[in-house]
Queue: 2 jobs
Job 1
Amino acid sequence: MPYIEVMKQLAPAALVALSLLAAPAPALAQDGAEPESGFREGLDLFARGAELILEGLREEMEPMLEEIQPFLEEEMLPFMQGLADAMDDMTAYHPPERLPNGDIIIRRRDDMPVLPEPGEGGEVEL
């Protein structure tokens, strides 16, 4: 899957760019003085550079996302919906466990009530 290799290369750059954008600006002095105009201009240029990096990442990832969109819509979405329907409430289960043979099991918590079996006609007596 070539898109996985692309994601491995682009993910660190995206994380760095996002963390730099999310970093708070330095606090102003208590006397209300504005920072130097050169400093402000530098921050603006830095923000614009980060914006350009993220835009470039988006443009590079767009074809990959278009390529995997049918898989996500046709295969993953129905699978996840079926899993959600079968598991009713996620808090009723322990975290998944991987067994030595590679199987993954999800155990129901002991303190959660067992769901009743449907009777004839699919009816459940509560």
Job 2
Amino acid sequence: MTSTAKVPRYSPATLERAERAVRCAPFQLKLFTTMRRQSVDIRAIAGSAGVENGYSQQPLPEMAVEQLMLWLIQVGLLRREVDGQGLTSSFRLTPLGHLLVEQWQQEGKLPAANWRDRLYNSLSRWLRLPDWLQPL
């Protein structure tokens, strides 16, 4: 982002939810810093490629990576890349993601999750109301 770009304002709840989701995800800062510059294909994140690329500390099944990426989309951190054919298997940061990753790059690491973060993230992720039941 350039200094002349208008930075959206986010509620404290939105920021906390996105930060908590990343703290609880098994990804390394390098994945998100790469996403600041370019989209990243799921095949570069899943399996042994994820470890080799420095995106995760252990190999993760592609299905698990897909589900984690969808959660990070729901909390507003990521978006799925689109090409002329439609949605792709690549992901990029949203403006919220750029804001948070810039902060983490300055700190040099992702914040660590505690047991409360993990509990609250799990409850938020798995006990969500369907979109059609969400209040407007």
